[in-house]
């Protein structure tokens, strides 16, 4: 479909403000990604370590 120029001069609507839960979730995901990148063992190794420390 060719460009017909309908509503060409209208500005696009701005997105609404970010929800606080989105900020918390994105910071947690970023922290987890950096932690897994820096740690020398896998996520399963971390789970095994937690089981070892806390028992069953």
Can you offer a commentary on this structure?
By secondary structure, this protein is mainly alpha-helical. Helix content is 55%, strand content 0%. The protein has two helices and no strands. The model has no long low-confidence stretch (mean pLDDT 81).
The helix content is 55-70%
| Overall geometric form | elongated
Distance between the termini: 63 Å
Oligomerization state:
single chain
Q: What does the main sheet amount to?
A: none
As a percent range, the share of strand residues is under 5%
Low-confidence stretches: none
H/I helix tally: 2
- SSE order, one letter for each helix or strand: HH
| Content-based structural category | mainly alpha
What is the β-strand count?
0
Question: Which SSEs are present, and which pair or pack?
Answer:
Blueprint: H1 20-38, H2 43-54
Keywords: Membrane, Transmembrane, Transmembrane helix
Region (Disordered): 1-21
Transmembrane segments: 28-54
In short:
Helices cover 55% and strands 0% of the residues. It has 56 residues and is mainly α. The mean pLDDT is 81.
Task: List the keywords.
mainly alpha; 2 helices; 56 residues
């Amino acid at each position: 479909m060719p460009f017909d120029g309908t509503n060409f001069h209208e500005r696009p609507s701005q997105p609404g403000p970010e929800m606080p839960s989105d900020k918390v979730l994105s910071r947690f995901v970023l922290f987890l990604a950096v932690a897994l990148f820096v740690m020398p063992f896998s996520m399963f190794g971390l789970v095994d370590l937690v089981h070892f420390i806390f028992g069953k």
